[in-house]
């Protein structure tokens, strides 16, 4: 491997060893790591707290036309919990086996992408590449628990507005074949708590209007209420108001007094257009074609911070350059192969200049 490759793998593994795992994440080590990266890249770094212990960190590479809308390269610092007994290696040791597979929580979701951004920039700067648009490389907290105290709050701030974002890249997902998944939209998330109240009493009594008639049954005891918890991921093709009317109709038909409490009820956010009206997509697709990489546009089944950016009317694409890789986000023994990781850096070395050099035609 080249010196650049060795450094990239070393930085990736160092970042993976930081246990920024829920619950109660301490992001201090992530901030210190990113400050060191910024220093090595010669880039300014800023940290902003929307809420206590919820830092948003970004590095900035100023373009030749800093007044025009910038490019946002977003990733999240947090990772989901682990069940260590189910792992072959310690999930925060970043062990690399003889096949080059690097095992760690966050290897795919999504510390790989954050490092790939930085290492691509390192190579571009070394090659004296200049960009038309300014780049902001953003690292946010709490994406894995919905981003309520991370990106959702940050987009409301003057600090985000001052970034003047015109286009964003964020996380995607691994592909088990040679095609790269690219996401221009997401299903919106509704978490429903359907409350089914009724007449309580002893399980031996034939009571009228019990909760069990509306949502379940329990031996011996008839409780005063059942609560059904449902995780809905609503496709972009669904008429959301009509869907809600259908839910209410089902509740009315099921029995008296049933009501819905929404733990999450996100709006249906328009997808990012993948046509001539979006010059950033044309640049992204053109650079991909030049590299002979196959793209498969699709709608993300889960939720990412892209939804908050798209909700502002900013075009954004989810993309993690991991093909021929099993999908292991949130799974035991999450890993990413070293060669796939390094290939992703090469891909970003083409994609970043392509989108950052899009000519400004906004007036």
From TrEMBL:
GO terms for molecular function: aminoacylase activity; metal ion binding. The active site is at residues 78, 143. PROSITE patterns: ARGE_DAPE_CPG2_1, ARGE_DAPE_CPG2_2. Zn(2+) 1 binds at residues 76, 109, 171. InterPro entries: Aminoacylase-1_M20A, ArgE/DapE_CS, Bact_exopeptidase_dim_dom, Peptidase_M20, Peptidase_M20_dimer. The keyword Metal-binding applies. CDD domains: M20_AcylaseI_like. Residues 214-255 form the Peptidase M20 dimerisation domain. This is Peptidase M20 dimerisation domain-containing protein.
């Amino acid at each position: 491997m080249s010196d650049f490759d060795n450094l990239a793998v070393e930085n990736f593994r160092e970042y993976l060893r930081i246990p920024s795992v829920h619950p109660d994440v301490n992001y201090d080590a992530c901030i210190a790591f990113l400050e060191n990266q910024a220093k090595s890249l010669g880039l300014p770094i800023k940290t902003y707290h929307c809420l206590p212990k919820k830092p948003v960190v970004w590095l900035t590479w100023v373009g030749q036309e800093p007044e025009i809308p910038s490019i946002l390269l977003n990733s999240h610092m947090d990772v989901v919990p682990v069940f260590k007994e189910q792992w072959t290696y310690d999930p925060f040791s970043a062990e690399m086996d003889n096949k080059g597979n690097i095992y760690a929580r966050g290897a795919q979701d999504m510390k790989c992408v954050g490092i790939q951004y930085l290492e691509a920039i390192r190579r571009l700067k070394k090659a004296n590449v200049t960009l038309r648009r300014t780049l902001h490389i953003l690292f946010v907290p709490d994406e894995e628990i919905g981003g309520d105290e991370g990106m959702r709050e940050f987009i409301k701030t003057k600090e985000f507005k001052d970034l003047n974002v015109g286009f964003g890249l964020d996380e995607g997902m691994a592909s088990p074949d040679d095609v790269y998944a690219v996401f221009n939209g997401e299903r919106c998330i509704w978490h429903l708590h359907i409350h089914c109240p009724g007449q309580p009493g002893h399980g031996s009594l034939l009571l009228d209007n019990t909760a069990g008639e509306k949502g379940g049954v329990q031996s011996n005891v008839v409780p005063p209420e059942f609560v059904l918890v449902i995780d809905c991921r609503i496709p972009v093709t669904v008429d959301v108001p009509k869907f809600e009317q259908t839910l209410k109709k089902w509740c009315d038909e099921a029995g008296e007094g049933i009501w819905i409490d929404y733990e999450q009820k996100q709006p249906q956010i328009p997808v990012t257009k993948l046509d001539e009206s979006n010059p950033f997509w044309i640049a992204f697709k053109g650079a991909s074609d030049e590299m002979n990489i196959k793209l498969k546009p699709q709608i993300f089944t889960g939720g990412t911070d892209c939804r908050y950016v798209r909700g502002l009317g900013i075009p954004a694409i989810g993309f993690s350059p991991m093909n021929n890789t099993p999908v292991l986000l949130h799974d035991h023994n999450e890993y990413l192969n070293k060669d796939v990781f390094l290939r992703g850096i090469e891909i970003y070395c083409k994609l970043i200049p392509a989108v950052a050099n899009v000519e400004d035609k906004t007036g």
